[in-house]
Specification:
Structural class: alpha+beta
Strand order of the largest sheet: 2-4-5-7-6
Shape: elongated
Largest sheet: 5 strands, mixed
Oligomer: single chain
Strand content: 5-15%
Length: 495
């Protein structure tokens, strides 16, 4: 009892020491992370990184800096993520040993690799992988080397190099299996499958499932052999112990009978386990086929919608566009093609310095003769220029203002504002005193094809198109839920 009490005291002191080693900023960041507030979490981790860096606590600084980086590119803020990693790399120069530097630089290179994989840049990702190989060698850390194999497999599978991915993953699985770390291998496979689903890589998911099933089949045989050998050893040890302690044949027979019963029970348990495993394998294979079929169907569906729209347009052009129904079909066809092009676009967005006040006044002027009686249209934009994609921004603001003109009642107010929210954050805000969009529909208005509509009253694709344009620019389009005097849309831009 005393020994158990001292062990508990030691464990408690160890836990308290571990918590005490973390700064208050890092603890606040971890608490915010549990609440799911990404912006606040990222801000606190950056502050913790700067605090640790100033104090020369390099390892803690790198940990907080890389976590903050992942929270940046999680929201597609790649420029800020790369800039933060550059600062983290400078901090690593304070490390005292080459092996420590290599281990910390490996973490930085790993974050860059993950960003390049997400950006679908295979050559840049390959360069990071080479750097990680050198750093893993210098670090001399076996865990780092195993992690390198894991990231190699993800790289190869993501960019369609299936054979190389299989070879690397087999090497990693064999190392852990040889050490009988079956649970770790199982976790690695499940993590890889989860990453494949998260990144939308059907090839990674399919290959992972296939390799997982093959490994499961082989490792079960190893586990069974281990259990049988352990049982045999147990039987031999028991027999030797019985022979030494008691020569009584009756006692020995009783123990042997007991062991036989145990062996039968174990055999029965193995049979039951084999049946359960077989059912699991069949279910896994069925799920793999279902996932592949779903991915294929989604791709075909998107292609079908785009193709059918393009094929209908020449025929519709021959009809009289003055007829409301024909015009509605033409607009719908054009909107579908625009939305499809935005969703599948991969080229980089081109920006240009644009003077804000003239742009806002020009857009506001376009709707002044379309509003209801007594409606005022106000513009509030400071005299400054911003780097933006003028075509996309104009399209979004023009659509929002046109909607405001329709839904703002007589004697109401429409306003277009521009506000600078930070060094790299800008907001265009369109407000009107019309009806408030119900909270349950505020997310739905940005999703296409959510309901069957009379196309002559609008196809509902205007806001989804605007949303995609905002995302393509690295920003976002949302409804301000705190505005209660009507409806307010916020176009957020990053540069």
């Amino acid at each position: 009892m005393k020994k158990l009490f001292f062990l508990c005291i030691i464990s408690l002191l160890t836990a308290i020491t571990a918590v005490a080693q973390k700064s208050e900023l890092q603890q606040r960041a971890e608490a915010a992370e549990k609440d799911g507030t990404i912006g606040t979490t990222r801000y606190l981790y950056i502050r913790a990184f700067e605090d640790y860096s100033n104090k020369g606590q390099v390892e803690q600084a790198v940990e907080c800096g890389t976590i903050a980086t992942s929270l940046y590119y999680k929201e597609n803020f790649y420029k800020e993520a790369f800039e933060l990693l550059h600062r983290v790399t400078q901090t690593i120069s304070q490390a005292t040993s080459e092996s420590q530097k290599a281990t910390l630089l490996y973490r930085v290179s790993k974050e860059r690799l993950q960003m390049y994989i997400k950006l679908r840049k295979p050559e840049s990702a390959k360069d990071q992988l080479k750097a990680m190989e050198n750093q893993a060698t210098v670090s001399g850390d076996e865990n780092v080397k195993n992690d390198l194999l894991y990231n190699k497999a993800i790289y190869y599978y993501t960019f369609g190099q299936t054979a190389q991915g299989n070879a690397v993953f087999k090497e990693m699985a064999n190392k852990l299996t040889a050490d009988k770390q079956y649970d770790k291998v199982d976790d690695v496979y499940k993590t890889l499958i989860a990453n494949g689903k998260k990144s939308g890589s059907a090839n990674l998911v399919a290959q992972s499932y296939s390799n997982y099933i093959t490994w499961k089949d082989s490792v079960n045989a190893l586990k069974t052999a281990d259990e049988i050998n352990a049982l045999k050893q147990q039987i031999a040890d028991n027999e030797a112990s019985i022979a030494e302690k008691d020569s009584s044949l009756t006692l020995r027979q009783a123990i042997i009978i007991g062991l036989c019963v145990l062996a039968v029970a174990l055999a029965a348990a193995l049979v039951v386990g084999a049946i359960i495993l077989l059912r699991f394998i069949m279910l896994t294979r069925k799920q793999k086929k279902t996932i592949k079929l779903a991915n294929d169907n989604n791709a075909l569906k998107a292609k079908f919608i785009s193709n059918i729209s393009a094929q209908l347009e020449p025929t519709l052009q021959k009809l009289d566009s003055k007829i409301p129904e024909v015009k509605a079909l033409l607009d719908f066809s054009s909107h579908v093609q625009t939305l499809s092009a935005l969703e599948n676009a991969t080229e980089e967005i081109v920006t240009e310095d644009t003077h804000v006040p003239p742009l806002c006044e020009e857009l506001a002027t376009e709707i002044r003769d379309k509003v209801k009686s007594g409606v005022t249209v106000a513009v509030n934009a400071p005299n400054m220029s911003v780097a933006m994609n003028r075509e996309y921004v104009s399209h979004i603001l023009r659509h929002l203002l046109a909607n405001a003109a329709i839904y703002t009642p007589e004697s109401g107010k429409i306003s277009l504002e521009y506000k600078k929210r930070g060094a790299h954050t800008h907001h265009f805000i369109v407000s009107n005193t019309g009806e408030i969009i119900p909270e349950e529909k505020q997310e739905e208005v940005f999703k296409p094809f959510t309901e069957v509509r009379d196309l002559t009253t609008g196809d509902g694709l205007g806001l989804p198109i605007c949303k995609q344009m905002a995302l393509r620019m690295g920003g976002d389009l949302s409804i301000d839920t705190t505005f209660t005097k009507g409806t307010r849309f916020v176009l957020e831009l990053k540069n």
